[in-house]
């Protein structure tokens, strides 16, 4: 609430600077830059906590809203700080491991195609039993896996991808690399945003892996 | 993405199935009950690949039914936010297009289609670039990114985007014609 008062006070001076200063206020505990802003805000806070709501009650709310929106969006470009750490993972970053139970194994499309094909072949034998029918999702899953299958030897793909594990690449990320026809390292970085922080470390090993995978595709 | 996962379920079996083939009965009931279902946590259960264990049965009070805890391995398909999928377009309209990736339905709104692609109505509705070099129509294969998911009792519905680097049409059925 007191923060709000501070912002509300700043609004009449100039809308934009108020937003920025208040944004920095949110993070000011650690940032040296915001010391100045902090003082100003702190002063205003005390004196205007009630004042601002009276005199500028309406402007107060939008300024707060705008600020929170901005804090969320502009955090990349702005001077980092608290809001960045709070929202650190990109909302569209793939977090397979966190969202699934521990005993889960990510499957590459080519592996899934092998497994599902095997089941379908077995079902030909079992199909005499009318109680057992494969659901629609099975057919769709199989069609998807077969269409997207790039390699016929999943073990070879795993061997090629293995060195990347040393760089902290997760199984889910490895599957992403194996599931698509990726031609350049930049393409990998674009499609797997979680690599963003380790770009420099991963560039060379990824180049090697992509080259090996391309060879494997050509051989198939 | 596909996953191999171990799940557990309590299966209730009627006493008439007790006998030598109790296990087979349990497995076929399990397959009937769970294959094709979906949940927000695991996604679609595409197929059961094996039974890990069948626990001791527990008689239900007042009925003859017995509950067996069954641990089973299965292949599931679950889309994640941020995941890239290659999907086949099933319908195109002025609001955007629908696509399918395995058992999952994806809608890409026209706001999430690059601005240089415009909707063209006609026999084969499509989104086309001004120079006509790129076309999205029914049966086109597109690479898209999932930005939202909604799980139903029987299906998973996703919102996708192709408005990003390295996303968009992979193959166009019209190109060969």
Automatic annotation (TrEMBL), chain A:
Stretches with biased composition (Low complexity): 13-24, 77-88
Query: By its UniProt entry, which Gene3D superfamilies does this protein fall under?
Result: 1.20.1250.40
UniProt keyword terms in alphabetical order: Nucleus
Where is it mainly found? nucleus
Q: Where is the composition biased (Basic and acidic residues)?
A: 67-76
Organism superkingdom: Eukaryota
Where is the protein found, in the record's own terms? Nucleus
Q: Positions of the region Disordered?
A: 1-90
Polar residues composition bias: residue spans: 47-56
Q: Looking at the keywords, is Nucleus present? A: yes
InterPro entries listed in its UniProt record = HRDC-like_sf, RNA_pol_Rpb4/RPC9_core, Rpb4-like, Rpb4/RPC9, Rpb4/RPC9_sf
Chain ranges of the RNA polymerase Rpb4/RPC9 core domain: 99-220
A Pfam family this protein belongs to? RNA_pol_Rpb4
- UniProt-listed PANTHER family: DNA-DIRECTED RNA POLYMERASE II
* Family of this protein: Belongs to the eukaryotic RPB4 RNA polymerase subunit family.
* Protein name per Swiss-Prot or TrEMBL: RNA polymerase Rpb4/RPC9 core domain-containing protein
Annotated organism of origin: Datura stramonium (Jimsonweed)
UniProtKB/TrEMBL annotation, chain B:
Q: Where is the major localization of this protein?
A: nucleus
**A GO cellular-component term linked to this record:** P-body
S1 motif domain span: 79-156
**What is a biological process (GO) this protein takes part in?**
transcription initiation at RNA polymerase II promoter
Q: Please list the residue ranges annotated as the RNA polymerase Rpb7-like N-terminal domain.
A: 8-64
GO MF terms here are:
single-stranded DNA binding; single-stranded RNA binding; translation initiation factor binding
Q: Which residues cross the membrane?
A: none
Tell me the Gene3D superfamilies matching this sequence. Nucleic acid-binding proteins (2.40.50.140), RNA polymerase Rpb7-like, N-terminal domain (3.30.1490.120)
**Which UniProt key words apply to this protein?**
DNA-directed RNA polymerase, Nucleus, Transcription
Its localization reads: Nucleus
What InterPro entries does this protein's entry cite? NA-bd_OB-fold (IPR012340), RNA_pol_Rpb7-like_N_sf (IPR036898), Rpb7-like (IPR045113), Rpb7-like_N (IPR005576), S1_domain (IPR003029)
Source domain of life: Eukaryota
Any single Pfam family the record assigns to this protein = SHS2_Rpb7-N
Matching PANTHER family:
DNA-DIRECTED RNA POLYMERASE II SUBUNIT RPB7, DNA-DIRECTED RNA POLYMERASE II, III
The similarity comment for this entry is: Belongs to the eukaryotic RPB7/RPC8 RNA polymerase subunit family.
Q: Quote the function comment for this protein.
A: DNA-dependent RNA polymerase which catalyzes the transcription of DNA into RNA using the four ribonucleoside triphosphates as substrates.
Protein name, UniProt field: DNA-directed RNA polymerase subunit
Its source organism is: Nicotiana tabacum
* The organism's taxonomic lineage, starting at the top: Eukaryota, Viridiplantae, Streptophyta, Embryophyta, Tracheophyta
